[in-house]
UniProtKB/TrEMBL annotation, chain A:
GO terms for biological process: intracellular protein transport; vesicle-mediated transport. One of its GO terms (molecular function) is clathrin binding. Residues 636-645 have a biased composition (Pro residues). This is Beta-adaptin-like protein. It is a peripheral membrane protein. Keywords: Cytoplasmic vesicle, Golgi apparatus, Membrane, Protein transport, Transport. One of its GO terms (cellular component) is Golgi apparatus. It comes from Theobroma cacao (Cacao). Subunit of clathrin-associated adaptor protein complex that plays a role in protein sorting in the late-Golgi/trans-Golgi network (TGN) and/or endosomes. The AP complexes mediate both the recruitment of clathrin to membranes and the recognition of sorting signals within the cytosolic tails of transmembrane cargo molecules. Adaptor protein complexes are heterotetramers composed of two large adaptins (beta-type subunit and alpha-type or delta-type or epsilon-type or gamma-type subunit), a medium adaptin (mu-type subunit) and a small adaptin (sigma-type subunit). Residues 792-903 form the Beta-adaptin appendage C-terminal subdomain domain.
From TrEMBL, chain B:
It comes from Theobroma cacao (Cacao). GO terms for biological process: Golgi to lysosome transport; intracellular protein transport; protein targeting. Its main location: membrane. Keywords: Membrane, Protein transport, Transport. This is Clathrin adaptor complexes medium subunit family protein isoform 1. SUPFAM superfamilies: Second domain of Mu2 adaptin subunit (ap50) of ap2 adaptor, SNARE-like. The keyword Transport applies. Belongs to the adaptor complexes medium subunit family. Residues 183-450 form the MHD domain. PANTHER family: AP COMPLEX SUBUNIT MU. It is found in: Endomembrane system.
Length: 904, 451
């Protein structure tokens, strides 16, 4: 033990460990107990007491539960660092799991499940099996959670030993605690499994709804959360569910209330009767408001959720705006959320009250809160046309107080108000100009300058005002410089007199010669060219009428809102982000990788410890135990469970020379033929409906190849599809042919597509937005990527001569180049074949030093050709691709396609 | 499910640390503390109770100055975790009598034993002190409450929370009295936190009562208890607005907006005679939470006047009038008022013969503070403050000062008029007559007068 000795001598007080060791081996019970307590104390403050392992484990065999628990706590902490010694405890664990005292039985399985050491896990199975069928509910509920623990360590073992079935049996247990834990365990296992394990049928539903009434508050949350995945078959079933969940709204536990709200909101989507819906909304309002009487931390969670709820169902809290008024002593994070909701609930009816509040908040001390309050006034002005004037007069009052940051914030929102109501409130500009010299924040300055430029013709001294900013032009932040540039141009166009003319020269000079900022320089050059070639055109461009902006207080995208609403009462609804953006569940590190501070067995001195342990008088084996004592010294038996099966390489793919990226698990072809399509709508998002799709070209025609998989509980029918405007105007050429899908069924279909139907403006983009609906579910939106090679037509072959001619005729600016350092061409022929199959035609090949250079041609509809040059060293990573085309803006899309093709 | 649970002191020391799933690295407590401490660079803004750092979600609540924290990697129910953290604090308080850094450190073995029963593999098992008693064997080492230092800055955390109230009971639920036998007694506290906002002209803009009927039972054998509330109590405001102003005069029915009950409460006869029946579990718990926005008579009337008094000078006159009967006394009253930023000096003048009052001008945040140890019902108190400014006021001094806020505690008074008419304990024998304490207390939550 010398290696460890030196370690703790350097870190802990001298003599402490030997002293403890002595006490742990005392013949007096009380002294041993005290010693273990001291060890635990040392452990919790971070001292390393692992060297006392054998001595502590020796205290494990005791009838004294208090002492036993302490030893177990120690074991959980150190077993991982001492796996060989941990096996010493197995005997006692197994014996304890058959103890007449149910507390000891439960304690044994609970602790064994927490020790993530393979050797212990092996011996867990038998006790666990017994405990799942124990007479005592305390033991059963502990065993239920233990199954989840075991699944986390070794999923295969759980499935092989039939623990999942035992767990499912526990759903019908007569003890609600057991039911709740079984539900929690199954839900976690399902979360980490791709197979359907825990499916909620209408039968389990009714069982769980009954258990709900008898459960502890925490069990109620587990059950409600598990049930929220259930999709009712029709409105009537939904109403029944809601009726049984509604009493939960009266619970004192906020978690129960929110989980019940989630469940009700979800079922409400199916309920068609407006009376029922209205009634439910009425019932939900008071409990939601009551959440705001809880601790501020809970209030915060409630407010973030309410924010989502009112976006979907504004009527629920339409009359409750007063409860969102900020209290003087609310923490700032609560105040900020309340403001957000006040804006959302503000209406013509309550705006006077709301403005009074905002005005008050704007004079408080907390700067961030004050700013947000000022902005809130502006947002209300933009949202409520009839109240705009009142909002502006409040803003003007605030400006008059002359608190610097209030003024600046007010100017920023007033700029937005001007954009929302052009030519309405310009009379206040004079007041704004009074505060000109106090502005020191870039956004406020930029806003003020924008206002001056936009209304230069109405401000008599606009030129003087702008001039005052010009002096510091080089020192201003880019945001302000850009506004100054534009405002000066506007001024000049509106008042082409001598003053502005001089100013514009100064500005253009500053913005072109004196600056390093490319954005500023480019904009300045554009103005310069415009002004020098055609001032009238410049007017049309610069002084063009701007689109009116709208209210942004319901800023969430509908599909995101849908997803977040499905996640009410989870972290997702607090962050307002879909779960997959922040859940990064890592599998717990396997043995030893985590506790790297503990040396492996091969380090000096460490190997002695097992011997020491044995000599130190570990408990002798008992006859009832199935564990051979010698196991500690012998090499461990090979683990019973096979290692997780590695994905089987696709042999076919291998034969035709694909690289390793192409290896797919073989079982993906289970349901239908054809290569697997990428999953675009996972079942978890689609309430059980999974959609995979990809664009494909077959026989010169473009198809959308789709696969639908119904993993939900209900039959889905009436499928329809719609494509959003896209760069190629892709649209469905026929209707979607999908028959009703029974639960568990899947269907693959080819949807013929046409081009140039609904083109979107702007630079070409590969984004394809798809919406799919059916009669049972909400509309699903997902994004796909258009891969250009699908469009390559079969008439894209060019003769060598015309290739050369075209190449020369196109200007060099039409040549775009991209390198793919990670791609390797291992066989020229295979690559050429593959490219030819997608209508990318080989023209010629030449050697350049050690590199091979290939030339290809391709064409997309409307006759746009691509001339391609690929340079690579066969068998070495790195491909250079140069293309020439009359439409170079297509180049990024082309490169995406070629990358996919070369990687395939 | 939860990965880790820990308790940190105000300085960030680890007092308790339990890892349930081994999926979050050990340094999480330090990462958390640094993040909370420096949420905004200026240290002004408080961190929200839930946030994510590098894929780990951190939850925390503050209880008597201690940080109760949980971490997780998955998309759990945040209200469950936050509620759980509060409950863990409560269970520990039930067991230890006093919740403090000292008592936690002295009882760490017991605390770990509790934590193992409360959470298994990150899943809450139970937070009922009653249930836990049959699984937990360590005896608490009771820390003498009398020796406890006043909580200092930690005490402000008592303000915001409703459920860790000013109950004077600091006795462990499980520990025996030094004398041996436990005293048979039960405490029922009706705690109301009131929020009122007065407009500058003295009208009530908003008013709200958040109430709790809190129970802490030391009765052996868990006898059944019946609590009778006002017979004319009604729940839900449905169309009652016509009656609102009539009831504000102090008569008429008590109308609650909403209420909820502890799971042990049976409401069989509640609709009939407004009686709650329950077998109280051990430990402290809320029998009923309620919320009321029906108008009520505010206990204090605040009057504030600011006048310019010459060049760079102004005078503030603050008047507080107690609008409750003279047999009731409010205590620990503090009146605060932010003054204009350019205030350099404030000199105070109390009414002649004033006792137990203190005044202060907090230079750092330009705040006037007026403390009154006691205010007897029906009395009125005045404070005059002469202010000196460093610059001319821009517009109107009243726009740059205020609002006036007030904190207070009024024992044996409740604004809602909700009452426990009687507290009946099922009798075991004719001689069984435990002590019953029914106490009322009203505290200010956000009591603000705009000027």
């Amino acid at each position: 033990m010398s290696g460890h000795d030196s370690k703790y001598f350097s870190t802990t007080k001298k003599g402490e460990i030997p002293e403890l060791k002595e006490e742990l081996n005392s013949q007096y019970k009380d002294k041993r107990k005290d010693a273990v307590k001291k060890v635990i104390a040392a452990m919790t403050v971070g001292k390393d007491v692992s060297s006392l392992f054998t001595d502590v484990v020796n205290c494990m065999q005791t009838e004294n539960l208090e002492l036993k628990k302490l030893v177990y706590l120690y074991l959980i902490n150190y077993a991982k660092s001492q796996p060989d010694l941990a096996i010493l405890a197995v005997n006692t664990f197994v014996k304890d799991s058959q103890d007449p005292n149910p507390l000891i039985r439960a304690l044994a399985v609970r602790t064994m499940g927490c020790i993530r050491v393979d050797k212990i896990t092996e011996y867990l199975c038998d006790p666990l099996q017994r405990c799942l069928k124990d007479d005592d509910p305390y033991v059963r509920k502990t065993a239920a959670i233990c199954v989840a623990k075991l699944y986390d360590i070794n999923a295969e073992l759980v499935e092989d030993r039939g623990f999942l079935e035992s767990l499912k049996d526990l759903i019908s247990d007569n003890n609600p605690m057991v039911v709740a834990n079984a539900v929690a365990a199954l839900a976690e296992i399902q979360e980490n499994s791709t197979r359907p394990i825990f499916e909620i049928t209408s039968h389990t539903l009714s069982k769980l709804l009954t258990a709900l009434n008898e459960c502890t508050e925490w069990g109620q949350v587990f059950i409600l959360d598990a049930l929220s995945r259930y999709k009712a078959a029709d409105a009537r079933e939904a109403e029944n569910i809601v009726e049984r969940v509604t009493p939960r709204l009266q619970h004192a536990n906020c978690a129960v209330v929110l989980s019940a709200v989630k469940m009700i909101l979800q079922q409400m989507e199916l309920i068609t009767s407006t009376d029922v819906v209205r009634n439910l909304c009425k019932k939900m309002a008071p409990p939601l408001v009551t959440l705001l009487s809880a601790e501020p931390e809970i209030q915060y969670v409630a407010l973030r959720n309410i924010n989502l709820i009112v976006q979907r169902r504004p009527t629920i809290l339409a009359h409750e705006i007063k409860v969102f008024f900020c209290k003087y002593n609310d923490p700032i994070y609560v105040k900020m959320e309340k403001l957000e909701i006040m804006i959302k609930l503000a209406s013509d009816r309550n705006i006077d009250q709301v403005l009074l509040e905002f005005k008050e908040y704007a004079t408080e001390v907390d700067v961030d809160f004050v700013r947000k309050a000022v902005r809130a006034i502006g947002r209300c002005a933009i949202k409520l046309e009839r109240a705009a004037e009142r909002c502006i007069s409040v803003l003007l009052e605030l400006i008059k107080i002359k608190v610097n940051y209030v003024v600046q914030e007010a100017i920023i929102v007033i700029k937005d108000i001007f954009r929302r109501y052009p030519n309405t409130y310009e009379s206040i500009i004079a007041t704004l100009c009074e505060s000109l010299d106090t502005l020191d924040e870039p956004e406020a300055k930029a806003s003020m300058i924008w206002i001056i430029g936009e209304y230069a013709e109405r401000i008599d001294n606009a030129d003087e005002l702008l001039e005052s900013f010009l002096e510091s032009f080089p020192e201003e932040p880019p945001q302000v410089q850009l506004q100054l540039l534009t405002a000066t141009v506007k001024l000049f166009l509106k008042k082409p007199t001598e003053g502005p003319q001089q100013m514009i020269q100064v500005v253009l000079n500053n913005a072109t010669v004196e600056t390093d900022n490319p954005d500023l320089r480019d904009r300045a050059y554009i103005y310069w060219r415009l002004l020098s070639t055609d001032p009238e055109a410049a007017k049309d461009v610069v002084l063009a009428e701007k689109p009116v902006i709208s209210d942004d207080s319901n800023q969430l995208d509908p599909s995101l809102l849908d997803e977040l609403l499905a996640n009410i009462a989870t972290l997702s609804s607090v962050y307002h982000k879909p779960p997959d953006t922040f859940v990064t569940r890592v599998k717990p590190a396997t043995q030893r990788t985590e506790d790297d501070e503990y040396p492996d067995g091969n380090e000096t001195g460490y190997a002695e410890s097992p011997a020491n342990a044995a000599d130190g008088g570990a408990s002798p084996p008992t006859s009832s135990s199935s564990v051979p004592y010698g196991a500690a010294r012998q090499p461990a038996p090979a683990p019973a469970a096979p290692a997780p099966v590695a994905p089987v390489p696709d042999l076919l793919g291998d034969l035709i020379g694909l690289d390793n990226n192409a290896i797919v698990p073989a079982d993906q072809h289970a349901t239908s033929s054809g290569p697997p399509l990428p999953i675009l709508l996972p079942a978890s998002t689609g309430q059980g409906l999974q959609i995979s799709a990809q664009l494909a070209r077959q026989d010169g025609q473009i198809f959308y190849s789709l696969q639908f998989e119904n993993n939900s509980q209900i039959t889905l029918d009436g499928f329809m599809i719609q494509f959003n405007k896209n760069s190629f105007g892709l649209a469905a050429a026929g209707s979607l042919q999908v028959p009703p899908l029974a639960p568990g069924a899947s269907r693959r279909t080819l949807l013929p597509m046409v081009l140039f139907q609904n083109m979107s403006a702007g630079p070409p983009s590969s984004l394809l937005q798809v919406a799919v609906k059916n009669n049972q579910q909400p509309v699903w939106y997902f994004n796909d990527k258009i891969l250009l090679h699908v469009f390559f037509t079969d008439d894209g072959r060019m003769e060598r001569t015309s290739f050369l001619e075209t190449w020369r005729s196109l200007p060099d600016s039409n040549e775009v180049l991209k390198e793919f350092p990670g791609i390797m061409v291992s066989s020229a022929e295979a690559t050429l074949d593959r490219l030819a199959a997608t209508n990318m035609f080989f023209i010629a090949k030449r050697k350049h030093a050690n590199q091979d250079v290939f030339y290809f041609s391709a064409k997309i509809p409307r006759g746009i050709p691509f001339l391609i040059e690929l340079t690579t060293v066969i068998g070495n990573p790195g491909v250079k691709c140069a293309i020439k085309t009359p439409n170079p803006e297509m180049a990024p899309l082309f490169f995406e396609a070629i990358e996919t093709l070369l990687k395939a | 499910m939860i990965s880790q649970f820990f308790v940190l002191s105000q300085r960030g020391d680890n007092i308790v640390f339990r890892d349930y799933r081994g999926e979050v690295a050990k340094g999480s407590a330090e990462i958390f503390f640094r993040k909370v401490k420096f949420w905004k660079e200026d240290g002004q803004e408080e961190a929200p109770p839930v946030f994510n750092v590098d894929g780990v979600n951190y939850f925390h609540v503050k209880v008597v100055g201690l940080l109760f924290v949980a971490t997780t990697r998955v998309n759990v129910s945040p209200s469950l975790v936050l509620e759980l953290l509060q409950r863990i604090a409560r269970v520990i308080k039930d067991y230890l009598g006093v919740l403090s850094e000292d008592s936690l450190r002295k009882n760490f073995v017991l605390v770990y034993e509790l934590l193992d029963e409360v959470i298994d593999f990150g899943y809450v098992q139970t937070t009922s002190t009653e249930v836990l008693k049959s699984y937990v064997f360590n005896e608490p080492i009771v820390v003498d409450a009398a020796r406890l230092q006043p909580l200092g800055p930690a005490a402000i955390f008592m303000q915001g929370s409703k459920r860790m109230p000013g109950t004077a009971v600091t006795k462990s639920v499980v520990a025996n009295e030094p004398g041996g036998r436990k005293r048979e007694e039960i405490f029922v506290d009706i705690i109301e936190k009131i929020s009122v906002t007065f407009s500058s002209s003295g009208y009530i803009l908003t008013s709200e009562i958040d109430g709790t009927i809190q129970m802490k039972s030391y009765l052996t054998g868990n006898p059944e208890i019946r609590l009778a509330l006002n017979e004319d109590l009604s729940i839900g405001r449905g169309g009652g607005s016509v009656y609102d102003y009539r009831s504000s005069s102090g008569a008429g029915p008590v109308i609650l907006d909403d209420c909820n009950f502890h799971e042990s409460v049976r409401l069989d006869s509640f609709d009939m005679d407004r009686t709650l029946a329950l077998v109280p579990p051990d430990g402290e718990f809320p029998v009923m939470n309620y919320r009321m926005t029906q108008e009520f008579k505010p206990p204090f009337h605040i009057n504030c006047l600011i006048e310019e008094a010459g060049h760079l000078k102004a005078e503030v006159i603050l008047k507080v009038r107690a609008e409750f009967p003279s047999n009731i006394t409010a205590n620990t009253v503090v009146v605060q008022m932010p003054l204009p930023k350019y205030t350099t000096r404030a000199s105070f003048e109390l009414e002649p013969g004033a006792v137990g009052q203190r005044t202060d001008f907090k230079e750092a945040n330009k705040k006037l503070e007026w403390g009154l140890k006691k205010i007897v019902g029906g009395s009125e108190h005045t404070l005059r403050a002469k202010l000196t400014f460093s610059q001319e006021s821009h517009a109107n001094i009243t726009k740059e000062a205020g609002p006036v806020s007030m904190t207070f505690t009024i024992p044996m008074y409740n604004a809602s008029r909700l009452q426990v008419k009687y507290l009946q304990i099922a009798k075991k024998s004719s001689s069984y007559n435990p002590y019953r304490w029914v106490r009322y207390v009203t505290q200010a939550n956000s009591y603000v007068a705009r000027i």
